[in-house]
Design a protein that fits this description.
Radius of gyration: 15 Å
Low-confidence stretches: none
Mean pLDDT: 96
CATH architecture: Alpha-Beta Complex
Structural class: alpha/beta
Number of domains: 1
Strand content: 15-25%
Number of helices: 6
Order of helices and strands: HEEHEHEHEHEHEEE
Helix content: 25-40%
Number of strands: 9
């Protein structure tokens, strides 16, 4: 489906930042092992340094190296809602750099249910993106390709078309999984009752 695969890989490997569709809202991301690219995301968004990025992929298996063993309640949620509009915040592993998590001991992981996003992850090195929403901090998230272009075309290195696989426009639900207990940080597209 995606026509500019080589360009996407080249931008990311060169420390660039890309904008892309997900199942919820548009994302802004880079390769997680590139500190300069992560810093560029914070610069673009004018994002507070204490706000962490999350890690997203096309498959949960690609994310498991970045986290400590996930408690059973978290595993149940992942089985039920991945791929989908749920971000699970759990203890990170040593593989997850502090510059992604703002020095916190936890990291959010998510597997969006969007064909274009899935294809991007399939073709990129490591299959994982460090990511946040494609908008300036305290501004509304981009929900369409035209909004993403408006927000990011002068800032990101590449804005990837959605090829008709549109975002639904509601942010993901964010749930923390610590010591086998759940804590809702944000109610979003998936309504959790815990």
């Amino acid at each position: 489906m995606i026509k500019n695969r080589e360009e996407i890989i080249k931008v990311l490997e060169g420390g660039g930042v890309i904008t892309y569709v997900t199942d919820t809202v548009w994302g802004l991301g880079c390769l997680p092992n590139n500190k300069k690219a992560v810093e560029k995301i914070y610069e673009i968004k004018k994002r507070e340094a204490q706000k962490p990025l999350i890690l997203m992929s096309n498959e949960v298996y690609n994310l498991l190296d970045y986290v400590a063993p996930i408690p059973k309640v978290g595993q149940i949620l992942i089985k039920k809602y991945f791929p989908g509009a749920l971000t699970v915040v759990t203890d990170k592993s040593e593989k997850t750099p502090d510059y992604i998590t703002s020095g916190m001991a936890t990291v959010g992981i998510r597997v969006p249910d969007n064909e274009v996003f899935r294809e991007i992850c399939e073709i990129i090195p490591g299959h994982v993106l460090a990511t946040t929403s494609a908008n300036l901090s305290h501004q509304p998230s981009a929900k369409t390709y035209s909004q993403a272009l408006e927000n990011m075309s002068a800032l990101a290195d590449l804005v990837i078309e959605d090829y008709g696989c549109e975002a639904k426009g509601l942010e993901s639900t964010v749930v923390g999984v610590m010591n086998n207990e759940l804590r809702i940080f944000r109610q979003g597209a998936i309504i959790l009752d815990i």
